[in-house]
Specification:
The protein is an all-alpha fold. 71% of the residues lie in helices and 0% in strands. The protein is globular and about 50 Å long.
């Protein structure tokens, strides 16, 4: 097999892997109940696919495989990782309801695990802040940045990320942490790369063109 054919096969396998992850997440998203009833975004699969594809397109293969395993394991165990993610966010956006109705039913997170997650969060918030400064119009369309800005109606990038990281298995979180460390050492910005995928899916050549079009 030539290098070109091998590369094509790898690309197809990667596409199938990401599609499988999105299918599993979408199914769990459909089974997630919202306090105010079904959310409008739960009926918009194209938007869901675009946002999740933008994230997963940046991930290395081993991290994708690990997270797909997390989702499949959750299905077998009767857990819903998407529900758990949104429940965790309410620790900030609605702490009374979280403490009374949700926290008793969620897996406990150890101090060591919390520290591991927070180290990742600090780096990603810094990347998101740098992105917003460089592309302010695109940044204005994103979530507010920090947990301090949370309200019952508005969930920040930081709080969303904390909720998502909390659903990863120890294996997946360790691989995700290495991924973030590798990007940081290389001087890369994960927010920039993720939003770069989003704007290309929307038809723009790149971030500068998308910024000018806002």
């Amino acid at each position: 097999m030539s290098a070109s054919m091998s590369g094509d096969a790898d690309a197809r396998e990667r596409q199938r892997l990401i599609a499988a992850i999105i299918d599993l997440e979408w199914g769990q998203f459909q089974r997630t109940t919202n306090q105010g009833g079904r959310a409008a975004c739960q009926g918009n699969r194209p938007m869901f696919e675009q946002m999740r594809l933008s994230q997963f397109a940046t991930w290395p293969h081993d991290l994708l495989v690990s997270y797909r395993t997390d989702l499949a394991d959750a299905e077998r165990e009767g857990r819903n990782l998407v529900t758990e993610k949104y429940a965790r966010m309410m620790a900030s956006t609605d702490p009374e309801t979280y403490a009374r109705e949700l926290a008793p039913y969620l897996p406990r997170i150890s101090g060591a695990r919390t520290a591991q997650q927070e180290r990742i969060i600090v780096q990603q918030v810094a990347w998101a802040r740098a992105f917003m400064q460089r592309w302010p119009k695109l940044g204005a369309a994103m979530r507010v940045l920090t947990t301090a800005q949370d309200t019952p109606e508005q969930t920040s990038f930081e709080t969303y990320l904390r909720g998502e990281l909390s659903t990863y298995s120890p294996r997946t979180l360790a691989r995700y942490g290495r991924f973030v460390d590798d990007l940081a050492r290389a001087g890369r910005n994960l927010t920039e790369e993720t939003v770069g995928v989003t704007v290309r899916l929307a038809g723009f050549p790149g971030l500068d063109d998308a910024e000018r079009a806002q």
